[in-house]
Amino acid sequence: MGAYKEDESGISIYIVDIEAHPESNPTISQPKKYLGIGRMMIAFGIQLSIDASLGGIVTFAAKTDELLEHYIKDFGAIPIVQPMSGGPKLLMIADKSAQEIFSTYLS
């Protein structure tokens, strides 16, 4: 399940929520039963961003520190300003990282 919207500043698609089967979460299940669901859902957000003339930029929050590290390491996400101490850890995927994720699904 995914929820997407254009952010308030109009510079990216904000991925409000991504939920995948728990057995596809690398921080919960090893080995993962389902591969690539999160990456595909981020690619869909990148497509929405391209369609909205926002250059493929997506932003989202990591729900846990483990997911934060996963998004940085495996997706090339960049931490962006945290609106409040102890609050959500916001990330952005853009440029080369967005292109690499998006091109995974081009044939």
Would you kindly provide a written description of the structure presented here, covering whatever features stand out?
The chain is α+β, with helices and mostly antiparallel strands. Helices cover 33% and strands 21% of the residues. It is built from three helices and five strands; from the N terminus they run E-E-H-E-H-E-E-H. The chain has helices at residues 37-51, 65-75, 95-103, and strands at 2-6, 13-18, 58-62, 78-79, 89-93. A five-stranded mixed beta sheet has the order 1-2-3-5-4. The longest helix has 15 residues, at 37-51. The chain is globular, with a radius of gyration of 13 Å.
Low-confidence stretches: none
Q: Count every beta strand, where a strand is a DSSP E run of 2 or more residues.
A: 5
Structural class: alpha+beta
Main sheet?
Answer: 5 strands, mixed
In which order are the strands of the major sheet placed?
Answer: 1-2-3-5-4
Query: Helix coverage percent of residues?
Result: 25-40%
Number of helical segments?
3
Q: Name the overall outline.
A: globular
Proportion of strand residues: 15-25%
Brief overview:
Strand 1 and strand 2 form a beta hairpin. The chain has three helices and five strands, in the order ββαβαββα. Helix content is 33%, strand content 21%.
Describe this protein with a few key phrases:
107 residues, alpha+beta, five-stranded mixed beta sheet, 3 helices, 5 strands, 33% helix, globular
Blueprint of the fold:
Elements: E1 2-6, E2 13-18, H1 37-51, E3 58-62, H2 65-75, E4 78-79, E5 89-93, H3 95-103
Parallel strand pairs: 2-3
Antiparallel strand pairs: 1-2, 3-5, 4-5
